[in-house]
Amino acid sequence: MDERTCPGCQQLLPPGSDECGNCAERSAVRSDGGDIRMSRRPRRLLRYWLLGISLALTVLASALYYLTLNTASRWNGVTGPVDWLRFALNSGSTPGTPAISGTLALGADSDHGVPVDFGTVDIGGHVTTAVSVTVLTAGVLGSISVVTQGVPDLDFNNAGSGTCTVGASYPANSTCTVNVSFSPKGVGTRLGAVVLQDASGEAMASRHIPMATGYLMGTGNGTWRLQSEAPPLRIGTGWVLPWGFDMDAAGNIFVANYPTRPYDAGGSVIKESPAPGGYIQTTIGSGFVGPSGIAVDGAGNVYISDASLQVIFRETPYKDGYVQSQIPTPGIGWPTAVAVDGGGNIYLTDAPKNRILKESLFAGTYRQTSIPTSVPYPLGLAVDPAGNIYVANGDLVKETPNGETYLESKIASGYEGWNGWGAELTIDAVGNLLIADTKRNQIVMLPLAGSSFGKPILLLSVSRPMAVASAVSGDLFYTTGAPGAAGFWRAPLNVH
Asked: Is the domain of 260 the same as that of 133?
C-alpha cells in the first residue's frame, strides 16, 4: 500500500486513513487566507537549543561559585580574573543600602579646602596663632577641642583667650576664633583641627558632624629616627585580608579587614589601641561589605572606602565612640583606596574610569574634581602635604597640582599589588614614599630627594605585603595577605 501523508503537516497517515487528526491545530491562517504551517522538527530543534544554553549557563555558574568558595584559590590567581570581572561588572551598579547611622548632610561642616599652616617649628619649640572657624550649623557652643588627628592637646593645643565662647549662641555662617599653639612632638608633617560641638549634641544627632571644624597643619623639625628599639610584633587576631590601614597621632591603628570573597558579608574595620605589652583590639562602625582603604584626617575622622558597596564611610569621633555617615561620591566605581590632605580634602581611586576623585568642602558643600591618570585601573594612592597625588598599578606616577589641572610625571614602573592590582602607597612624615610591592614580596622606600625621589631602598622582604606605614618612633607597620599568614605586623625600620 502506498504511504500517504497529511497535506497540512506532512505526517504519515495511518494505513487506510484519510484523516489528518490534530494537524490542523498546528496550522494558522494568514490575513490573505493562506496557511502558515510549522512542522514539529524545527520546534524540537528550538527546544533543544534552549535546553542546551540553559544547561551551559548552569554549569558555568556552578563552576564560578565553586571557584570562589575555594579561599586558597583566590591567592594562586585562579579566581583573580573571576573577581576582576565581578568588580568590573559591578562598577556601574547601584550599591546596596548598608546599615549606617546617617548620611553626611551637605552644609553641615566648616569650609576646609586649605588648612591653617603653622609652618616648620623645632621639636621643643612652639608658635601660637588665632584660628578662625566658621559655624555653619547654628547652636549653643558646648565644647571647644583642639586635636591632633583626634587626640586632644598633643601637638596642637588650645592657648585660650579666643573669641569662641562656651555657652554662647552662634547663628549659621558666623565666625569666631580659637588661639592655637603648635608644639610638635614628632618630626615631619602633623595634622590637627579645631572642633566645635554644640551643647545639646543636636548637630551630631541630626547632621552627623560637629558645629564647625577648622583644619590645622604644621611641620616638626628634628632628627628622623631610622631604627626602632621595639622588638618585632604580630598585632591582633582574626585577620582575613587586612588590606589598608592608617594610624593617628596617639598610635591607634585602623585596619580595613576585607572579607573572604568580594561582595560577601563579613568585612570589618578594626581599631588597635596601644596598651602595655601590646594592643587592645576593638571594632568600629558597621555595615561594611568590602572595606579596603583607610585614612585619618586632622580632626580624627576615619574614612573607609568600601570597594564592594562603592561607598565612602566617615566615622566621626563623638564622646567615647563614633558617629557614622557617608560622603556623597556620585559616579564612583570600585574605590579601593582613600587618602586625605592637611585641609581635610578626600581623595579616592575610581579604577574603572582611570581617574582619581577629589572631594572638597567649599561653602559647606562637597565639590567633586575628576583627575584623569594614565595608570590603568589605578588602585594604589597617596597624597603629600602639598596636595601632590601618587598613583600606582604597574606604573607609579605623580599628579602635581597646576592651577585647575594636574601635571603627570612618571616616577617608576613595575610596582604591582595582589593579583596584579595596584601596590599600596604611603607618604611618611618626612615625605618618603613607601610601597607595599606585593608582586615582588617586598616593602621598599623611595627616599625624598628635593622635588623627586632617590633610588629604591629595600626595607623588608615579606610574603604578600598589602599596605605599609612608618611611625616617628622608627617602627615599620605593614599588613600581609598570604594564605594562612594574613596579619598585621610591627618591625624595626632600619635604613642604612
From this structure: no
